[in-house]
Amino acid sequence: xxxxxxxxxxxxxxxxxxxxxxxxxxxxxxxxxxxxxxxxxxxxxxxxxxxxxxxxxxxxxxxxxxxxxxxxxxxxxxxxxxxxxxxxxxxxxxxxxxxxxxxxxxxxxxxxxxxxxxxxxxxxxxxxxxxxxxxxxxxxxxxxxxxxxxxxxxxxx
Length: 157
Prior knowledge:
The chain contains four helices and three strands, in the order βββαααα. It has helices spanning 63-73, 95-108, 120-131, 136-143; strands spanning 23-28, 31-38, 50-55.
């Protein structure tokens, strides 16, 4: 969810977005993986938290490699409790900024912006894992869906 990655605004501290210390790179059975703790989310208003594990894929968009590289370039003097996605000056990435960059990227690629929003990432992730044959129970767990609503996110063309 975009709300778990970005702040609502620059003016107010937002406790929900992922922090640097919410991410751990682990090795299990010779494979690196990411342990990600979601402290609070849209469906977890009380902040019970949930933990996700992302495995290496070996592809160009491998989440383990991408997060490892991001953490390597982050300033080592950056506090561990700072937001994970920040600008070079340390200011947090906001939802507005992410949505704006998404729109500009789509325009540059000559893609009709009307079909894509920040929620498209959630739809795309659910569709991709379903196409790869991931079982429904796992898709529900990864997306943290409690009901069968996850099926409306899966869009085969």
